[in-house]
Design goal:
Helix content is 27%, strand content 31%. The protein is α+β, with helices and mostly antiparallel strands. The chain has two domains: 116 residues, 2-Layer Sandwich (D-amino Acid Aminotransferase, Chain A, domain 1); 148 residues, D-amino Acid Aminotransferase, Chain A, domain 2, CATH 3.20.10.10. Strand 8 and strand 9 form a beta hairpin.
Length: 281
């Protein structure tokens, strides 16, 4: 691996050590930004079009101007070039951040954007955890349900605080609840519960992020005739489930081993994990 590492700012390759974003940057000051975490497996950029669709939707919600050349073909070329330059192939993690340009305080003076692409190497394609995750609920701050709830914003203090709580409780993951008191997601994942072979997951109307991997799992379930319901998840749902697993774009599927005094199996987790690996191959 080369010693120098690079990133891409607005299409230009620069050193990660090159000072290029000022302290007045709106992402730094106000969290006025969106991001996507994208997986590269066996030299393949996974689900880029779905990531870009979600990103564009978030930009529309935040009233950011969309550049005409901000399309998947151009981004795929930039990502591939960055991965080769950093020697991060065949497996890597990409972070694509879009932030609003210009000055202003809460009210921006411009809606034009800049974008940053970063890469981090990973050891292998999706891996299913050997030991089930130990999870519990983070209830100190409830997630609001509004038009910002489904997008991946850089304004992430709720998730940071849940991460702090996870560490203090020595858990593997925390589940978040919304203003209705139902479980909407985990810190960095969507949540699925299995009961009698049927999938249950929180609908977007419950305030969860519109996960790209969530979409893939639901598609795979339909393809394989696995019944799926989008319905509010309660503590009762978790305690009565046969299986619980979490999904995100970086890890794919991660199965939960324990919540409270309830222990879970991982049959469908393994099934979906193998389906994801078949897409990589």
């Amino acid at each position: 691996m080369s010693q120098d590492q690079f990133c891409i700012l607005n299409g230009h390759l620069i050193s990660v050590y090159e000072p290029s974003v000022p302290f007045t940057n709106r992402a730094f000051r106000y969290g006025d930004a969106l991001f996507e975490s994208i997986r590269v497996c066996n030299n393949k950029i996974m689900f880029l079009k779905d990531h870009l669709t979600r990103l564009k939707l978030g930009m529309t919600v935040l009233r950011m101007n969309l550049p005409a050349d901000f399309i998947s073909e151009n981004l795929a070329e930039l990502i591939s070039g960055l991965l080769k330059k950093n020697e991060h192939l065949p497996n890597a993690r990409i972070r694509l951040t879009v932030f609003r340009n210009g000055a202003g305080y809460y009210a921006p003076e411009s809606n034009d954007i800049s974008f940053l692409i970063e890469s981090t190497p990973m050891q292998s394609p999706y891996e299913l955890n050997q030991k089930g995750l130990w999870v519990d609920i983070y209830a100190d701050i409830k997630k609001s349900i509004n038009k910002l709830s489904n997008i991946k914003s850089a304004n992430a203090l709720l998730y940071v605080m849940a991460g702090v709580a996870k560490q203090s409780m020595k858990l593997d993951e925390c589940l978040l609840i919304n203003e209705n008191g139902t479980i909407c997601e985990a810190i960095s994942s969507n949540v699925f519960v299995v009961k009698n072979g049927t999938l249950f997951t929180s609908p977007l109307t419950e305030g969860c992020v519109a996960g790209v991997m969530r979409k893939q799992i639901m598609h795979l379930a339909t393809e394989n005739k696995i019944l799926t319901f989008e319905s509010p998840l309660t503590m009762y749902t978790l305690l009565n489930g046969d299986e619980v697993f979490l999904t995100n774009s970086i890890h794919g599927v991660q199965w939960v081993g324990q919540y409270k005094d309830r222990f879970y199996t991982n049959k469908l987790s393994l099934f979906f994990h193998e389906k994801l690996l078949s897409l990589v191959k």
